[in-house]
Every structure is written in structure tokens, then in C-alpha cells.
Write a structure and sequence with these properties.
- The structure is a single chain.
- The chain is of the alpha/beta class.
- The protein is about 45% helix and about 15% strand.
- Helix 12 packs antiparallel against helix 13 and helix 13 packs antiparallel against helix 14.
- The strands form 2 sheets. The protein has a 7-stranded parallel β-sheet with strand order 4-3-2-1-5-6-7, sandwiched between helices. The protein has a 4-stranded mixed β-sheet with strand order 9-8-10-11, with helices on one face.
- The chain is built from 15 helices and 11 strands.
- It folds into 3 domains: about 140 residues, Rossmann fold, CATH 3.40.50.720; about 140 residues, no CATH class; about 70 residues, Orthogonal Bundle (Rna Polymerase Sigma Factor, Chain: A), CATH 1.10.1740.
- Helix 2 links the parallel strand 2 and strand 3.
Amino acid sequence: MIRVAILGSTGSIGRSALAVVRRHPDRFQLKALVANRSAATLAAQVAEFRPATAVLCDESVEAPSGQHEGTMWRRGIDAMLEVSADPDVDVVLNSLVGAAGLRPTLAALEAGHRLALANKESLVAGGALVLSAAERGGGEIVPIDSEHSAILQCLQGTRGDDVQRVTLTASGGPFRGRRAQDLADVKAAAALRHPTWDMGAKITIDSATLANKALEVVEAHFLYGLGYDRIAAVVHPQSVIHSFVEFVDGSVLAQLGFPTMELPILYALDYPNRVDDKALRTYDPVRSSPLTFEEIDHEAFPMFSLGVEAGRRSGCAPAVYNAGNEIAVQAFLEDRIRFTGIPEVVRRTMDRIGADEPRDLDDVIAVDAAARAVAAEEGRKS
């Protein structure tokens, strides 16, 4: 039995992970479920899965009344970190949203666990720290992003120096094909209607701006040790091919599958084994045709170029980009800035904050806080 802790169990990735565990009770055992403040949803999950521990990170939220036999209810960030480092856990699935996922990422890797990572902000905000924690503790990172899971699968049995380039695919989001001047007045409801994926609000907006793809480029730099000139991205509206890996001899491998997060989750939980799962759709190349590709429109979607620029600057620049984006996205969702105001806020935030190399977690936390404050200020000007 593989013992699993799910951080962010009430979100879209967490619910998909629970669907996978539900289908394979003979293979996976839930040890802990962690949510931020969705107490009622967490209680329902606890009633079904009976984990040893349930954690509500927000200490202002009361645990549900009534007892769940065999489950200890806890509250607070420290409880989440203890779950992440628990020696009775084999795999920590981190699907928390935003930079808040960095600390449990470090805790899991330093404890020597496998980290099934859906929280891309961990690597973006603290990439060097994350790799150092994995080296110190002996933990391993298995990405859950469909694009990075695809690359990992294509790399099995190959040598690192065989890779010439990787190409990530992007759906293009709900505004694919729109010109820059057509995006000023779009509303959150339209931005949240993703054409192929069912995701949480923040990542759906990131997909609409293509910030999500920029974050994945930075992730690829850290996960696979590739320079930014060897990481590309293209728009692929069908979301069937998730990434390409091109090798030095000109050969190209791609991983294909219908858009569902359950496949990369299943692969990450029992990596590198493949688990028979009849619930996942069989690929039909005829019914899926045609598969098409387009270049990214950098003028209409400047968040992609801004994010890659932050990666190239290195140091704290990716953390600044990420923090500025989180604040700007929330402001857009609350109708306080326009859709086109998101890159404006992020650009001005990056211009105001330096990109020194973080020495430790405290440095990352400090620059994250500073960037959020600046972004909030810039958002009020928009």
C-alpha cells in the first residue's frame, strides 16, 4: 500500500486525486487530508476515506462538530507541515494554490518523501531551495502538471544529454484568437470558461492570460536542468498532446491523452509504475483528429513573455512575477482591475523590485510579501 497525504484535498486537483484513490483502494491508503478553510467539504471527505489526520490550515475556521472515528482533526500551518514530513507517509500530493505551497514542498522533500507536485509556484518562487531540499533529504519530485508529466514520461529510459529541446503545449484558453484590443473589457465569468480543462479559478485565469504556461517554462528549467533557450511553448487547442521532447538526433517523442488530471495524478502516485485504470478514456486518433498548433500571440498575451523574462532574470524575479500575478488575478476576479490590467500590474511590480538571489526561505517569504504589497498598490492605480 502506498500511503498518501493530499494537501488541498477540496480543490479541483485534490478532488481528482480522491477519485483516483477511490478506484484503487487496494493500492493507495489515505493518511491525511489538508484543506485551507472548506470545513464542510473536508468533513465529507473524512467521512468517506477515514484518514488518520485531517487539517484545516486556517485557524479561524472551526473543525466540524461530531467525531469521525479514527481521524484526528488539527488546525494551522504547523499541523500541515507535520503532515508533509510524517514518516508514515510515502507520497505527499501538494495541490495547494499559490506560493503558500512552498513550505510544505520543502518539508516533504527534506523528509525524503516523494512529492507529487501540482503546486507549480513552489518551483517558481523557490526553485533552487526546492532542489537543495530534495538533495539534502533524499526526496523526489514527480510533477502532476499534464505538461511536465508528459515530459517525464517521454524521458524514461533516456539520458539527460540526449535532450535537445522540450516544447510545452497550451490550450490557448477561452480567448484564443482574440486581438489585444479585444481583451480590455472581458469579464471574469468569460475568463473562467475554459474550453478543455475543468480547474480552479486562479489557474483558469492563468490559463486565459497564458501566465500558467510561463510558470511551466520556469518549472521546466528547474525540473529538467534546461536553459530557457531549450524550452519552447506552442498553442494546441485540442489539449491532446501535452508536451514534446526533441532529442539531439532529431527524433521527437510526445505524450498524448484526453484532457484529464487523473492520468498524471495516477502516474505520479505510483511512479514509475503504470496502473491499469479502465475509467480513463482510450485514445482514438481518428475521433481526435485533426490536431493543430499555433504560435503564441505575445502581443495579446504579454503575461507569457513577462514570465519567461522573469525566469531568465533568475534570482527572486520569478517569485516577484508569481506574487504580482496572484494579487492581480484576485483583483481581476473581484472586478477591481481589467483583464489587461493583470500584465500591467505584474510588469510594474517587476520593475520596482530587484532580483537578488534568495539565500533561504526567509528571503523568499520577504520578497513575496514585498511583491504582494507593491502589486496591491499598483492595482489600485489601474
